[in-house]
Amino acid sequence: MAGPTSPHLVIPLMLWGESSPSHCISAIQISHDHCTLVTGSHDGQLCVWVMDPNTYKATPKCLLVGHTASIVCLVAAKNTLEMECIVSSSENGEMCTWDLIDGQCIESVKLPQIHSHIQSYSFGGTEDASLFCIGNYPEILVIDPFTLEIIMNLTSRVHPDWMAAIHVLRPTRRQDDVVLGLTTSGVVKVWTVGAQDLNNLGEPVLEHESKQIRCLSATSMTCCLYNQRTVIIVSPKYWQIYDAGDFSLLCSMASRQGESWVGGDFLATDRVIVWNNAGTGFIYRLPTNKLKGHVMRCVVESKDFHNKSSEEDFPFLYCVLKLADEQKFPCPPSIRCSLVVKGDGRLVKLLLRGDANGRVSVFSIPEVTDNQLEQIQQLDFDNPPIMNPQSCSSLADAWDAIYPKPVGVLSHVDNNISVTASLYITTQNRLVCGRADGSIVLVNGLATLKSLLLQQSQNDLQNMLTLEGHTSRVTCLLYPYQLHTRYDPVQLVSGGADFTLCLWDISSGTLLQKFCVQVGEIAQLLVPPANSSPRILQCICSVAKDHSVSLISLKERKCVLLASRHLFPVTCIKWRPLDDFMMVACSDGTLYVWQMETGQLDRVVHGMSAEEILNACDESVSIVPSFQEGGLANPAVHFFRGLKHRNISAIRHAALRGLNQLQHASASGHHDSGDHAKDRGVPLTIQGLRSNASEKEFHAVFFDAEALVVQLLHEEYSLMSPNTLETHGLINQSEYQKVAALTHSASPDAQKKIAGILAKVRESAENMQHKIQSRSDAGASVRSSERGAEDDGLSNNENVRQRQIPHTLPNDWSLTMEIAQLLLSLLHGWTLDKDLDHACQNRLGLAKPKSPVCFGLISRSGHMMLMLPTWPAGEPVDHFTSFGHWAISSTLTTNHLLAIVALSNTLMSMNSAAFTDGKIIRQFPPREIARSSEDRKGEESSMVLDVQTKQGWSLMATLHCVLLPDKVQELQLLHNSSVLEVFRKAQIEMLARRWQDRCLEIREAAQALLLAELERVGVDGRKSLVDKWATFLPTYADPFTIIGSSLSVGSNAANLTGSGTQNLSIPSQQWGSDGSSPARPTGEYEAEEDHDDEDDGEDVALRRPNRSMELKRRQATSVVLLGVIGAEFGQDVGENKRTGEADPRKKKTVEGFGLGPNQNLARLTSKALTYLLLAPATPKLPLHTSLRRAAIDLIGRGFTVWEPHLDVSKVLLSMLELCCEGDKLIPSMSYGLPLSPAADSCRTSRHALTLIATARPAAFITTMAREVARYITLQQNAQALNVNLANTTLARAKPEILRVIELLIDKMQADISDLLVEVTDIVLHCVDHGHLKGRSLSEVFPSLCRFSQITHCSSSRRIAVGSRNGSLALYELRGQKCQYIQAHNAEITACAFSPDGKNLASYSSTENRLSFWQQSATGVFGLGAVQTRCVKTYTTDPVPQCVRPGSTIPLRMARLQWHSGKTVAIMLSDGSETRYHL
Question: What is the pTM of this model?
Answer without folding.
Answer: 0.84
